[in-house]
Amino acid sequence: MTWPMRVVSNTSPILSLAIETKADVILLDERDARKVAQRLKLRTTGVVGVLLKAYRMKRISDLSAALQQLKTRAGFRLSDQVTASVLSASGSTTHASQTESP
Asked: What is the phi/psi pair of residue 91, to 5°?
């Protein structure tokens, strides 16, 4: 299989392994890799999806704080729009702006 150049260097082994093992879900955060995976009919989730599931399973109590830590401690790029969308989908009443330091 031929992969787009931007995906080849980073994630082609992951995509190949997912196809070979018939993975139920593949953890990807890179947009281009997710698009390729979706074209290959692979089910994807990202770190934010994992956090959302953990929140719904009551494994974490403050999704907003977890998202904020992901951005500040790990340097994860996450727009305010995506953050708000995730918090809305979770039913969380806490908003990301409330967890930011002054």
From this structure: 80, 10
In the numeric block, which tokens belong to residue 40?
């290959």
| Residue 59's pLDDT band (cuts 50, 70, 90) | very high
The residue with tokens 């196809």 is: 19
Q: Which two tokens stand for residue 101?
A: 């330091």
Q: Is the pLDDT of residue 93 over 90?
A: no
Q: What is the pLDDT of residues 69-87, one digit of tens each?
A: 999 999 999 999 999 999 9
Cβ–Cβ < 8 Å for 38, 69: no
Long-range CB contacts for residues 76-83, cutoff 8 Å, separation at least 24: 76/29, 76/47, 78/48, 82/48
